[in-house]
Every structure is written in structure tokens, then in C-alpha cells.
Amino acid sequence: MTVIINPDSTLQNNLMSFGFDCETGWYPLIEELIDRLNKEFPNEEIKVLQVKEKYAGLRFYVSGGTERSDRLIDFYEKLSCHVCEKCSSFWTAKERVKGGWYKTLCDQCAKKFEWENITE
User: Fold this and answer.
1) Angle at the Cα of 83 (from 119 to 41), degrees rounded to 5?
2) What is the pLDDT of residue 99?
3) For the chain, which residues make up each domain, given as ranges?
4) Would you give the end-to-end CA distance of the chain in angstroms?
5) 83 closest CA partner among 46, 45, 36, 33
6) What is the DSSP string of 37-101?
7) How do residues 22-37 score in pLDDT, each as one tens digit?
8) CA distance 99 to 13
């Protein structure tokens, strides 16, 4: 296995003790990314340092890997801007704002949780 997720309870080597610090709608996207990293880069050791949401986008921080694996991670981070953080709805999500917080939500989840559309 090339992707290593080893939570550090002292928070000195990585922040994975917090788990995936994002809504569950992105979990399938994260799992797919990890699977692809394992399949496409079997000889590389990639240590996951942190997975979180920031400014309505997925952030997947690692150590190790190569420029090619970094490009794959970048692709999935950009893809997250089209996937609803709440329900995983694909290509229907938009960036929303509420009280200074940003989220990527589909119209249905935005309405349910009263988030405003900030992009057309």
C-alpha cells in the first residue's frame, strides 16, 4: 500500500487524529483519490498529513509522492468544487456563503441549510 494514514495523537507529525475534517459528502471522493493513488503509484510512499475543507474546496495534504501524484491530488481538489459536501451530488454543486463561511452545496442542500449562492 502506498498511501499511509497514521494519525498522530500528539499532532506533531500530522493532523489525521482529526480524521477527514470535512462534510461526509466528500468521503467518496476522498476514498476514490486514495484508491487511485494506491493503484497508479504503487511504488511511492505517500503519507497523508491532513484532509480538510477550506474555502469550499477539498485540501489533501501529503508528504512524499511525485509531481504526477501531486497533479492527481490537485485534480481531485478541483473536482471537489463540483461535488456537494453534504450529499455527494455531482456537478450540481456551487460555492455558497453564510456568515462568512464558504461551502460547496447543491441547490437542494443549500436551500435546506439556507446557504446563499455566490457564483452563477
Assistant:
1) 130
2) 86
3) 3-117
4) 41
5) 33
6) HHHH-TT--EEEEEEEEETTEEEEEEEE--HHHHHHHHHHHHHGGGB-TTT--BS--EEEEETTE
7) 999 999 999 999 999 9
8) 33
Contact 57, 82 (CB under 8 A): no
Q: How confident is the model at residue 1 (pLDDT cuts 50, 70, 90)?
A: low
Q: Residue 95 contacts by C-beta under 8 Å, 6 or more apart in sequence?
A: 56, 81, 102, 103, 104, 118, 119
* CA 96 from centre of chain: 17
**Hey, which residues does 64 pair with through a beta bridge?**
46
| Non-local CB neighbours of 71 within 8 Å, separated by 6+ positions | none
**Residue 56, phi-psi category: left (phi > 0), alpha (psi -120 to 50), beta (remainder):** left
CB 102, CB 56: distance < 8 Å: yes
